[in-house]
Amino acid sequence: MKFDVVIGNPPYNKGMDLDFVDLGYKISNKYTVMITPAKWQTTADDYSGCASKNINYKQFREMYVPHMSYVCFYPQSMEVFDIYQIDGNYREY
After folding, report:
1. Could you give the percent of the chain with pLDDT greater than 70?
2. Cα 59 from Cα 18, distance rounded (Å)
3. Which of 61, 58, 69 is nearest to 28 (CA)?
4. What is the pTM of this model?
5. % helix / strand / coil in the chain, to the nearest 5?
6. Backbone angles phi, psi at 89, to 5 degrees
7. What distances in angstroms separate CA 5 from CA 31, 52, 63, 75, one per listed residue?
8. pLDDT band with cut points at 50, 70 and 90 for residue 89
């Protein structure tokens, strides 16, 4: 089954979001919109701590970055969400 638009906010746990983005792209006919951590942009190609068994950060960049038409980066999560992040731990206010 394919959808015209896939929107998601995957779990932010050691690269699990890569699986959600990967699946979202595969089931989308037109648009995939995801809220993800920026780690896929900065993680080293040889990083071994990724939880995904299907795709790593290097593969993700090679496969999906060429298809991205817009990336919006918010260095301060409080600009968008009512949460505060410290070293991967999230606190809601």
Report:
1. 85
2. 10
3. 69
4. 0.71
5. 30, 25, 45
6. -95, 135
7. 5, 23, 19, 26
8. very low
